Amino acid sequence: MRRDVVIALFAVVAGVGAVLLVLASDRERSPVGVSAAVALVVGWAYIGSGLIARRQRPENRLGVVMVFIGFAWFATFLADANPSLVFTAGKALESVYLLGFVYLVLSFPTGRLPGRLERALITSGVVLVTVVEVAWLLFADSRSQICSRCPENAFEVTRNDSVATGLLQGQRTVGVVLSILTVALLVHRWRRASAPERRAGAPVLWAGSAMFAALAFSVANDIFDHPLGEGPAWTRELMFASIPIAVLAVLLQRRLARSAVAGLVVELGEGGTSISLRDALARALRDPSLELAY
Fold first, then answer.
1. What is the pTM (predicted TM-score) of this model?
2. CA nearest to 208, candidates 253, 251, 246
3. How crowded is the C-beta side of 63, counted as CA atoms within 13 Å?
4. Chain centroid to CA 4: how far?
């Protein structure tokens, strides 16, 4: 409990800091007030949902992952700062929250990656948002590669626009491919799942699929120099913000399921010849196709 209070206090500080950075920046998407509200609400939603999930199932690492996503999200707004080193650190951490998000969706609801393909996607994501990101910063001039009003890139070793552009576009292209592969994997998982498994994971599965589709669309828009403006980026953030709601919906389903099991125990304990064990179990599990084998 004490640890949760400390995390919540850090979340308040990080959220307020992110809002102040957004409001003081002249590089954020307009309207700035909306950007500040999105920054605050999304980060707090992930951290709050993560703390709830961790308290309900402390053995499941998804709660910790969600807390990590929230703080990593707040860290992206360091890129709105004016000091060169803080700005550059924000750019280096810009996509780390997406790595946590990929793990969250692929490992849901157990908190563990089920197969080699999921682990390969996570490994590729780690390389993409760390190694490639830092390599790009070593050659990128911030005013030519990021924005004309940006502070200097503190990580720049030597300016090479062609290398920096190649790394950036390559990173984006691979990111689009990985996002599409992840959507295909989630759809395949949905098709193979049983009816109870679909009900248990549907909110997160579909919200996650929508987020990855929006991410691919947004990054593709970046590749072609924003022909569609900021619309794809706002859509991506809206989809990203829906995930904590989906997780809370699943947690509510679990609580209702536990209540249904308690009701089943009471119903069976009352006895009586009129009680059908199969029907009682089917009602409790919300699976009319349930069959019993003796």
1. 0.86
2. 246
3. 15
4. 20
Cα distance between residue 175 and residue 217, in whole Å: 11
91-136 pLDDT, tens per residue?
999 999 999 999 999 998 888 998 899 999 999 999 999 999 999 9
Q: Is the pLDDT of residue 187 over 80?
A: yes
Under 8 Å between Cβ of 137 and 168:
no
pLDDT in tens, 21-32: 999 988 887 688
pLDDT class of 273 with cuts at 50, 70, 90:
very low
Assess contact for 235 and 218: CB atoms under 8 A. Answer: yes
Residue 185 CB: number of other CB atoms within 10 A?
18
Reported in sequence order, the residue ranges of 79-177 that DSSP labels E, i.e. its strands, are none
Cα end-to-end distance, the chain, whole Å? 45
Residue 164 tokens read as 């920096």
Structure-token match 């007030």, residue found? 33
